[in-house]
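2024-03-11 09:14:02 INFO queue: dequeued item PIG-L deacetylase family protein, len=237
2024-03-11 09:14:02 INFO validating residues
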Amino acid sequence: MMFDWSQQRLLVIAPHPDDEVLGCGGLLHKAKSAGAEVYVQFLTVGDTADVSDKGFSTASERVGEIKEVADHYRWDDWHIAFPGDDYHLRLDTLPRFEVANIIERQSPISVTSVRPTAVLAPHRLSYNQDHQVAAEAVHTALRPSDARRRHHPCLVLSYEEAADQWRQEPAPAPNMLVELDEAAIEAKIAAMRLYGSQFHDHPHTRSELTLQSLAVLRGMQGGVAFAEGYHATRMLA
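2024-03-11 09:14:37 INFO prediction written
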């Protein structure tokens, strides 16, 4: 199936800065290069303990990284819904209604405001609690309704990350593959490098070799060189 990305308006829901690159960084390059609009709704960012030499990254550092990545991709806009340590890695303490409302109508780049043709979000089977909250909130925000009264994106996709394989339920195979060229893979890896606090050497789920390997695997499954895998929840032609 051929898909005209040039006519799309993408809204990506990223629980944290870097999830949008890990999950759909190749597609973001492909779509934006074709002429699409791209908006990224981050749910939260805060000080983060990590395995770097310093042992942590600050929220201000990570916001600075977002700005570099946004310039790299030429996003049309981005927004952080729940900044601060009260929410970072604690989104499961919020009522789903509050998170879904941000996505549906309260954010400056909400579904109601942006009227995206495609929404991309994490998969609900991620081990990470913030990812699970994001996936369920998107599912609620995009519930079936009268399209004359509420905006219905025609394409709703769950993106995958290598770390999602760490879960007890069997990982379903993607039911949609998006072909990528070498430039899209290079752009994805370059963007991940801009998230310097989150990028790691191999072996790590956020290493260059991991990103390349997953793209090669998904590409092989589609008979092409590179691809990203998605789970389509809604696809209205």
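2024-03-11 09:14:37 INFO annotate: The radius of gyration is 17 Å.
2024-03-11 09:14:38 INFO item closed
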